[in-house]
Amino acid sequence: MNLAARSVAASGSSRLNSPVAWNRKVQDPQGYFDLEAGETERTPLLLTRREGGSRKSGRYPSKQTTDAVHPVALGLMVALLVFLLVGVVIGVYLLLLQIQRPWPVAHPFFLVERPAWWPYPVALEATVLDRRSVTDVIVVHTRSESCQNREECVRFLQNTERSCWAARGDHIPYNFLIGGDGVTYEARGWKKQHGFGDLTGQNTTLVVGIVGDFTDRQPADVQYAELKAFLNESIRRLSLSPHYRLRGAVNETRDANDGAAMYRQLQRWSHWKGSVIV
């Protein structure tokens, strides 16, 4: 019995003098720990309190929240961008389809501007043409000899300009002329109204003269090809409506079949709307 009492006393003495117990006495400002409760009952509460305090005081680093973009989300964004680009391409394509072109043109467009054939410092005085409202093209023949090269065609334009100025004090009345050399010559151009008083719609019409007399014979194939190229070029320059109307002009006081051979061919073109009588 004395031996058992001695063992209990020794055990209590060693617990009081153990380093663990001493350290806890120093660290706990509330007083000594309840040593009889045992170390295992006190440690979890102590650790919980210290961990909580450490997190609040910022001594432990916080968890990083900047995660990478999820691959599925990235794929969806890329797919959406692709769909938007495809939509834009389709929209532009459909818009271009609205611009009706009369036909594919293999013949290139050739233009000789007015200063190249009329090198005189005389300004072209004519009423301004609102090119946004041009819906009609009237094709006429000049009822003259044809010109087959640049020199002949330039001479024809110069003589026409001089005769018109001498007769009525006005410039050459055509907007454009197409020679037998397959070249378009600018007369009044896309910016000025034509000078034919007997043709209506001066602010909505371009007058194109085919150099030659084509009542009984056809213009040269190259003149037809250049006329097609001119129409497409006018649309491209936004100087002619894509839904334009192609017409002829017949002077019945001269010949009931005025320009008949040329108009028989033009009647086959999709924009043909008949001839006007002048």
Task: Tag the structure with descriptive keywords.
elongated; 7 strands; single chain; alpha/beta; 12% strand
Characterization of the model:
The chain is elongated, with a radius of gyration of 49 Å. The protein is built from 8 helices and 7 strands. Strand 6, helix 8 (260-266) and strand 7 (272-277) form a beta-alpha-beta unit. A 7-stranded mixed β-sheet has the order 1-4-3-5-2-6-7, sandwiched between helices. The model is unreliable at 19-28, 31-41 and 43-57 (pLDDT under 50). The chain has helices at residues 2-17, 19-27, 39-57, 71-98, 114-117, 150-168, 221-236, 260-266, and strands spanning 111-112, 136-141, 176-178, 184-186, 205-210, 245-250, 272-277. It is of the alpha/beta class and 278 residues long.
Strand order of the largest sheet: 1-4-3-5-2-6-7
Instruction: Give a short account of the largest sheet.
Output: 7 strands, mixed
Unreliable residue runs = 19-28, 31-41, 43-57
Percent of residues in β-strands: 5-15%
Order of secondary-structure elements: HHHHEHEHEEEHEHE
The class by helix and strand makeup works out as alpha/beta
Share of residues in helices: 40-55%
Number of helices: 8
Distance between the termini: 149 Å
Compute the average pLDDT.
Answer: 80
Shape: elongated
DSSP strand tally: 7
CA radius of gyration is: 49 Å
